[in-house]
Amino acid sequence: MEKEVKKLRLDIDGNQVDRPAVWWDEENKILCMIDQTKIPFDVKVHICDTFLDTAQAIKNMIIRGAPSIGAAAAFGLAQAVSEFWNNENFNHNIRSAYEILLSTRPTAVDLKHGLEYIIKTVPLTPENALNQAKRFSKDIAEEGKKIGEIGQNLIKSDMNLLTHCHTGALALVDNGSALAPIIQAWIVNKKRFHVYVDETRPRIQGRITSWELDQYGIDHTVICDSVSGSLMSQRKVDLIIVGADRVAQNGDIANKIGTYNLAVIAHYHNIPFYTAFPRSTFDPTIKTGEDILIEERNQLEVKEIKGYSREYQRQLSISPYSDKTKFFNPSFDVTPHSLIKGYITPEGILEAFELAKKLE
Ligand code: MRU
């Protein structure tokens, strides 16, 4: 009988290893992360030698998922502290590194929290900054474990669940947010159910969700994002759990584009809609979702798609669109708290009015 969820075992260059999404390599003094753009075909470690490498990796979504981004940013600033140590413009350089890292992805507040955690270190030395980054990262992973244990109570055998984007171990350093209750319920509590996985256009994070669910043998079906409404109307979805990238004081959430559509249809059909996230995703400085800045990404992500085969990856145009055709690619949307039944957090399953008191 499993007492707890085993870590994802990754096959990296033929070696079976347990790895979080991001970690510090003590021996080589480099930041390592699983390259999420290559999953599921390849599990490769991406190396960041400098804070600029780390900023680039966040921007290019080599590492992604709000809490993992936060952890990577914390390590990135710790790298900057070490790079600029003994430099006469230390304070100025650290402030610039902070701004560069902050500008990589604007919506996930975890990024800012990771940076703040490092910048407030007293005294700000390379060793202290690195230790703080490790602590920030470890705390997130532990919160994921609690989210799993708490959230699994919502899941019953024979249910059909639905989830959007990717919220597993790779998105949350380890353990996961919305995926953690699903994995916990299956592996530890031996419940048997089925999960619909939204494909999540345009970056297809559903492929990572499917890959993680596969590692645990969890029964799932990948659907195009437009299928969920019809499934709900046929009463084929009993429970929806999604993640979050920023949660406002009043409980409005920013999450991957398409979340709002899901929540509205779920509300219409009276299907419980939950969000799961660690403390680092709660933003006590903003009152409502209206204050959340939504990242707009490159139009090419809509126009083209990455084609994969075992041998190569290449960008393919989905259609020979004319030069005049425009594309719009907001990466997130805002779901108001009125559509959310509960917030699965390390402090319990909360209601919107409890968030500030319990998470600040
Ligand atoms: O753009 P991404 O892939 O970094 O998006 C973040 C997400 O994975 C989701 O929005 C998720 O639901 C929240 S992060 C666990």
Give an account of the 3D structure.
This protein is α/β, with parallel strands linked by helices and about 350 residues long. Helix content is about 35%, strand content about 20%. It has helices spanning about 50-60, 65-85, 90-100, 110-120, 125-150, 180-185, 205-215, 230-235, 260-270, 300-305, 355-360, and strands at about 10, 15-20, 20-25, 30-35, 45-50, 160-165, 195-200, 220-225, 240, 245, 255, 275, 305-310, 315, 330-335, 340-345, 350. The strands form five sheets. A seven-stranded mixed β-sheet has the order 8-7-6-9-12-16-17. Strands 3-4-5 form a three-stranded antiparallel β-sheet. The protein is globular and about 65 Å long. 5-S-methyl-1-O-phosphono-5-thio-D-ribulose binds next to helix 2 and strand 11. 5-S-methyl-1-O-phosphono-5-thio-D-ribulose binds near residues 172, 242 and 331.
What labels would you give this structure?
34% helix; alpha/beta; three-stranded antiparallel β-sheet; binds 5-S-methyl-1-O-phosphono-5-thio-D-ribulose; 360 residues; 11 helices; seven-stranded mixed β-sheet; 19% strand
N- to C-terminal separation?
37 Å
Strand order, main sheet: write it out: 8-7-6-9-12-16-17
Number of strands: 17
Biggest β-sheet, characterized? Answer: 7 strands, mixed
Radius of gyration: 20 Å
Order of helices and strands: EEEEEHHHHHEHEHEHEEEHEHEEEEEH
Helical amount among residues, as a percent range? 25-40%
Bound molecules: 5-S-methyl-1-O-phosphono-5-thio-D-ribulose
